[in-house]
């Protein structure tokens, strides 16, 4: 794969696929950016290109528009924020013909945006010919392509993979960092290698669990997904999150972990409540003693202590998924303390997952080696799957 430095960008129009899919909120003059983390993360590559004299056209999606232009999902407020961060005015072209005209008028170091790429339904079409048609039109805007949206690299989409086959292409700095980190984790993690998994759904993360069991020394499971594991061991889980259709698969994981000598740990105690809400009565109970009608919403103190002790011995830790309903103060302790233990571990520490990253920001935890910008993409990387956006870069012109 080429690197960004290998592209001769001076004086040329460079199409840059970034992930500027940020949360919006209602402002006085319409939607405004509620959290600019992803915009900030995209700035390094843009500045690299600008200082080398490139003329940058940024392409991104935003939200889930229903296959046509929708002012609610316009990139205008995002471009305005990007312009503030760059100290430039960043205009938005409404469509590809307008982008072509505007790009031709750019000077070296200028930056503009193309309007939300998902206003065009061809972007996410399942039909390769349809996507390639859009990619062909996009490629007429500029001469080179830089792929910097790690959060979409696992998608087969016109502005992610198809376009990289049509223009000389390279990964941006953000994607390069992510690829370096996850390649290291996949190929030669230092041991002990500990993975901490949580979050709401086992089914989302099933494939990665199977693969991780071949690689890790310790697998610590908390969050909502733990209850399917506890149920697989025959425990009553009350009204806790449970995916009954996954119990058999999870039994297979428990057996595989035993067979391979992987230390798979489940919660030994839980913080439970009768309601999914704050300000209600909570209790701490052993993991096999959830009363009927109650639900587990966080891991308990004994579990936190066990997880902390395993994490403190680790040389590599990957964390994906909160340990409890961290959004509600009563159930946030597990996520906060386990997060802090991971950040304090002197080995390589990596956080993946949108909600996990949000928890890290909410608690102000610092000191991780890397906080990934792509939840789904990072999990697919750890599964050993080929990510379409990266494959396309490898096969680029
Ligand atoms: P990530 O985005 O980091 O991959 P997920 O999307 O898988 O994480 O899960 C995050 C959600 O899981 C959070 O909103 C959190 O409230 C929820 N969650 C964690 N533990 C529990 C639990 N015990 N019961 C219900 N929901 C939970
Ligand atoms: Mg999530």
Task: Describe what you observe in this structure.
This protein has 397 residues and is α/β, with parallel strands linked by helices. The chain has two domains: 4-172, Rossmann fold, CATH 3.40.50.1260; 180-383, Phosphoglycerate kinase, N-terminal domain (Rossmann fold), CATH 3.40.50. 37% of the residues lie in helices and 18% in strands. The chain has helices spanning 37-51, 76-86, 96-104, 128-139, 158-162, 173-187, 202-212, 226-232, 247-260, 301-312, 333-344, 354-363, 375-382, 388-394; strands at residues 13-17, 24-27, 30-33, 55-59, 91-93, 111-114, 144-147, 169-171, 193-197, 218-221, 263-265, 269-273, 282-286, 295-299, 316-320, 348-352, 370-371. The strands form four sheets. The protein has a six-stranded parallel β-sheet with strand order 5-6-4-1-7-8, with helices on both faces. The protein has a six-stranded parallel β-sheet with strand order 11-10-9-15-16-17, with helices on both faces. The chain is elongated, with a radius of gyration of 23 Å. The model has no long low-confidence stretch (mean pLDDT 96). Magnesium ion (MG) binds next to α12. One of its GO terms (biological process) is glycolytic process. Keywords: ATP-binding, Kinase, Nucleotide-binding, Transferase. Monomer. This is phosphoglycerate kinase. It is an enzyme of class 2 (transferase).
